[in-house]
Design a protein that fits this description.
Layout: E1 24-25, E2 29-33, E3 46-53, E4 61-62, E5 70-79, E6 90-96, E7 115-119, H1 129-139, E8 147-154, E9 157-166, H2 187-190, E10 194-198, E11 208-210, E12 218-223, H3 231-248, H4 266-279, E13 289-293, E14 304-306, H5 347-350, H6 355-369, H7 375-388, H8 392-399, H9 417-438, E15 454-457, E16 464-480, E17 485-500, E18 507-515, E19 518-526
Parallel strand pairs: 2-8
Antiparallel strand pairs: 1-4, 2-3, 3-5, 5-6, 6-7, 7-9, 8-9, 10-12, 10-13, 11-12, 13-14, 15-16, 16-17, 16-18, 18-19
Helix pairs in contact: 1-7, 4-6, 7-9
Length: about 525
């Protein structure tokens, strides 16, 4: 039954908290001190001191220890939109020197940068949903924010367990695409370097524009931000997305040359869809949904790439509205269940009408289910994540005593931490099983797969893929997971050779060889 929900935030803000005597931890300790008379807010950034105590793996950290990891300035603010209803705040900050100049630093062993987030899980009482999703995404071959658990003190007040996250941005160690400069307004440089998102109009938006087909689908520039772009760059990306939408809505949208595949990296869209649906993320597709585009120079993937993944705290059954707690049904049909001020782009559903797309999606799902998305693998990952915070979470829930208490928008309220974790595991198992049984498409590459008949390396491959067989190879071909032939060549009857795969876009492919009257196939990944 179609339900209409007016998105009124009837927040009742918790003031549940208590003081904790905190002296030492098995996790790094982050200490922030603001200048006298100043507090961290969500309007202006506060320039203040931050020190980190980190004595190394297996060595205990004491508040009385010196700041041996970081001891310098930061510029910090409260971040988030819906999350600001909670008493445990999230923070965005920039590492800076004493003069307020950006200071690149490898915080807690993460790659060197200056833009960071201190994320304080609150409605997600497992303290793990975001970390789990980002870890899964990286296992699937994509960049996602790396993380480190820590404990936070601000102006002498113990704030609980926090997670240091990388902010999504263009960077060699984050979203690895060419950085777009303001003077790059012509030719190939203009064609890449953009991170955009579909999101709500909250926070520091600055500029947004609507989809051609639904004015409740809102695009925004993320990096570079709108005020860092010149008009021709803004127009380029707007026109690219417009052309993509018009193509997907047109009669030739499944054309192998002029259809959707001209604009998007299909595997990244498969994986984005898979994680959004596995989590049945209540905000999925319509907010915090990132996409990025590199240059069209022939050496890089200049198509639109879905991701990185972001904001999964109200996922995996952790929301009690709009059927988000159900393990059945498709999240991309959200607009048929609830009427919000933001909508899901039509192309997530429309792409499933293309046989090549849905068959490729089916193959990708089956591949992942035998690897990182196998239920046992996910459960083991959850166990490893929650074990990282086994000690600190006790103090966290002393500071924020919400175990057994409803917090907006919990669909399940466990009476113990262990019950909350078990709910997460049960939800994922049931949800994945439902997707197994209901995902459209047919995965049939049309060849016999024998994975022990010849060798390939390296896998994942970079510029070259080496092939070796005990018998003579007469011919080889490479197909994508939808069964489309990418290239085919004769080998002049040899048992070992190299294939130049430098021009393949990143993704998973099938290498088929013809040897002694047999077709033999192996999968490989192009980095």
């Amino acid at each position: 039954m179609l339900r209409k929900l007016t998105y009124l935030f009837l927040f009742f803000t918790f003031s549940i908290c208590s003081q904790v005597t905190f002296t030492d931890s098995d996790l790094p300790i982050v200490v922030i001190n603001t200048p006298p008379g100043e507090t961290i807010n969500d309007v202006t950034r506060t320039f203040c001191d931050m020190g980190i105590i980190d004595n190394g793996v297996g060595v205990r950290n004491y508040l009385t220890d010196p700041y041996n990891h970081y001891d310098n300035k930061i510029s910090i603010e409260i971040r988030g939109s819906t999350s600001q209803q909670y008493p445990k705040k999230n923070y965005g900050f920039e590492t800076q020197d004493q003069f307020g100049i950006k200071l690149n630093y490898p915080l807690l062993g993460l790659p060197t940068e200056n833009d960071w987030i201190l994320y304080g899980p609150y409605p997600d009482k497992t303290l793990s949903r975001n970390v789990l999703t980002y870890n899964l995404s990286r296992k699937m071959g994509h960049y996602a924010s790396r993380s480190r658990y820590c404990e936070l003190i601000i102006d002498g007040d113990y704030k609980g367990l926090y997670i240091l996250l990388e902010r999504i941005k263009v960077d060699n160690d984050r979203v690895k695409i060419d950085k777009l400069e303001t003077w790059e307004t012509l030719g190939l440089p203009l064609s890449g370097g953009y991170i955009v998102k579909v999101d709500k109009l909250t926070g520091e938006v600055g500029f947004s524009w609507s989809s051609n087909f639904n004015n409740e689908v809102l695009f925004q520039f993320h990096d570079p931000e709108f005020d860092e772009l010149v008009p021709v760059q803004v127009s380029y990306m707007q026109n690219f997305l417009s052309d993509f939408e018009n193509t997907v809505n047109g009669p030739l949208f499944d054309d192998p040359i002029e259809g959707y595949s001209k604009y998007i990296d299909a595997e990244s869209f498969y994986d984005f869809f898979i994680l959004q649906e596995l989590g049945r993320t209540v905000d999925g597709y319509r907010s915090s949904s990132f996409m990025y585009k590199d240059r069209d120079d022939g050496f890089k993937n200049g198509k639109l790439i879905a991701g990185p993944m972001w904001d999964f705290n109200l996922s995996y059954g952790n929301a009690d509205y709009c059927d988000a707690d159900l393990t059945t049904g498709w999240q991309y049909n959200f607009d048929e269940i609830c009427d919000f001020t933001t909508a899901i782009p039509f192309w997530w559903e429309r792409l499933l009408d293309a046989p090549s797309y849905r068959n490729g999606l089916k193959c990708r799902w089956e591949e992942l289910r035998s690897g990182p998305l196998h239920t046992d693998s996910i459960h083991l990952m959850i166990d490893s994540i929650v074990n990282l915070a086994a000690e600190a979470r006790v103090r966290n829930f002393q500071r924020w005593p919400i175990i057994g208490v409803y917090v907006n928008w919990n669909s399940f309220v466990g009476q113990t931490y262990e019950e909350d974790v078990q709910f997460l595991k049960n939800y994922i198992q049931q949800r994945a099983t439902w997707i197994d049984q209901n995902l459209p498409g047919i995965c049939d590459v049309g060849v016999e797969e024998k994975f022990d008949s010849f060798e390939i390396w390296p896998n994942p491959a970079g510029e070259k893929l080496s092939v070796k067989s005990i018998s003579i190879i007469e011919q080889y071909s490479i197909h994508d997971l939808a069964g489309r032939e990418i290239l085919s060549n004769k080998t002049n009857a040899t048992s070992s050779f190299q294939i130049d795969v430098s021009e393949l876009t990143s993704g998973t492919y099938l290498l088929t060889i013809f040897s002694e009257g047999q077709l033999l196939t192996q999968k490989f990944i192009k980095k």
